[in-house]
């Protein structure tokens, strides 16, 4: 690489120039039953698989925004209704003549479904991968499931509740996602060993040097292996892992307490090659083309609520009810029992006290005069 580009070449720019143009692969695009220019709604952005054509993606967490062809401002597209006609439909050309080396032992496309604010990294668990081969038409239905947490769980620690609220994460970025936290952990792991950042990862000010051909040996040793990821401090989980050298420890990558996940189901049908003049193939000779439909089949979104399971007064009521049902006593019975135990103990301690003997009082001695023994005459009054 240094022989052709010099010592100061940028591997990111080289890989972007080698990536096929989205305008050549994406032939026809429909969204919400309206035909749109594919270059207006798709952009070139970084993913775990390199540069890809991305729809509805805003990488605000790392400040590495996708490069739009014509669009100057970011715009999120929302589905107004359910059904295939209200979703996204794309006709694609695989450009089989341009194949030289493939990441997967197959031909066609790899479609990734992910959140607009998450970096598309399959290893983080928030990306759904779908393979689409030539001469196929695939229908991808989405189901959104949300999670929200009440403020009753805030007093508990992150370790106990197992999630983090957005306002509890202190960072220069605008939002926190579990996906981006895992990606940042991977970037830090590679940087600590190889002092560089892999080109397809988002830009980060702390990891500003891009890996080049000189770092291949280090990347094969510390990146291109199957890592066991420990997202947060867990002594039980860490001790159960056999190979500690193949384990990557993150700081505090907890899942979000408020989150939205998309679950995917797909069906497929075959396309016969030949000449077509339809809405999807207008005046086109179909050879290896394929069609992708992404839509929501049902209205509404399921939400899961995370709250405190049992409060102290509910637990007290349950215990009292069980004792009253099976034993026949209540909380008042426990109070009376404690009262009688205290009363019995107080009487028992009194019986062991030393009782002092009563000292009899001495009889008082008075002098006796002899005239007191003789009777006294009564006075008689005469009329």
Automatic annotation (TrEMBL):
Protein name (database record): Sodium channel protein Nach-like
The family line of this record is: Belongs to the amiloride-sensitive sodium channel (TC 1.A.6) family.
Q: Which gene encodes it?
A: LOC100746429
Which PANTHER family does the record cross-reference, listed alphabetically? Answer: AMILORIDE-SENSITIVE SODIUM CHANNEL-RELATED, PICKPOCKET 18-RELATED
A Pfam family recorded for this sequence? ASC
Query: What is the superkingdom listed in this entry's lineage?
Result: Eukaryota
Question: Which keywords describe this protein according to UniProt?
Answer: Ion channel, Ion transport, Membrane, Sodium, Sodium channel, Sodium transport, Transmembrane, Transmembrane helix, Transport
Lineage of this protein's species? Eukaryota, Metazoa, Ecdysozoa, Arthropoda, Hexapoda
State the compartments where it is located.
Membrane
Q: How does it sit in the membrane?
A: Multi-pass membrane protein
CC per GO annotation? plasma membrane
Q: Name one GO molecular function term.
A: ligand-gated sodium channel activity
Q: Where are the transmembrane segments?
A: 323-345
Presence of the UniProt keyword rRNA processing in the record: no
InterPro entries per UniProt:
ENaC
């Amino acid at each position: 690489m240094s022989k052709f580009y010099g010592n100061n070449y940028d591997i990111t720019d080289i890989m972007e120039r080698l990536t096929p143009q989205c305008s050549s692969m994406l032939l026809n695009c429909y969204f919400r039953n309206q035909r749109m220019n594919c270059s207006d709604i798709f952009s070139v952005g970084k993913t775990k698989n390199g540069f890809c054509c991305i729809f509805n993606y805003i990488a605000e967490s790392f400040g590495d925004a996708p490069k739009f062809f014509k669009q100057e401002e970011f715009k999120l597209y929302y589905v107004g209704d359910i059904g295939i006609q209200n979703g996204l439909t794309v006709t694609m050309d695989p450009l089989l003549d341009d194949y030289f080396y493939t990441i997967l032992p197959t031909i066609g496309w790899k479609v990734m479904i992910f959140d607009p604010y998450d970096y598309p990294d399959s290893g983080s668990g928030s990306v759904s991968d779908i393979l689409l081969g030539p001469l196929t038409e695939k229908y991808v239905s989405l189901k959104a499931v949300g999670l929200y947490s009440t403020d009753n769980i805030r007093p508990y620690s992150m370790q106990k509740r197992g999630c983090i609220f957005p306002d509890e994460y202190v960072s220069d970025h605008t939002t926190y996602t579990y996906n981006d936290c895992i990606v940042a952990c991977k970037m830090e792991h590679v940087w600590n060993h190889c002092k560089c950042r892999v080109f397809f990862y988002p830009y980060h000010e702390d990891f500003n040097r891009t890996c080049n051909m000189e770092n291949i040996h280090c990347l094969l040793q510390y990146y291109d292996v199957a890592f066991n990821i420990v997202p947060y401090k867990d002594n039980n989980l860490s001790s159960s892992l056999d190979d500690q050298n193949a384990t990557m420890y993150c700081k505090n990558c907890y899942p979000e307490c408020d989150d939205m996940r998309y679950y995917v189901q797909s069906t497929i049908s075959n396309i016969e090659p030949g000449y077509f003049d339809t809405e999807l193939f207008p005046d086109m000779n179909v050879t290896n083309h394929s069609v992708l439909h992404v839509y929501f089949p049902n209205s509404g979104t399921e939400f899961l609520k995370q709250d405190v399971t049992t409060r102290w007064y509910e637990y007290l009521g349950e215990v009292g009810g069980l004792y009253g049902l099976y034993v026949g006593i209540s909380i008042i019975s426990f109070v009376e029992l404690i009262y009688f135990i205290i009363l019995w103990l107080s009487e028992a301690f009194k019986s062991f006290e030393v009782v002092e003997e009563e000292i009899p009082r001495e009889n008082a001695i008075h002098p006796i005069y002899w005239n007191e023994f003789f009777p006294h005459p009564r006075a008689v009054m005469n009329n």
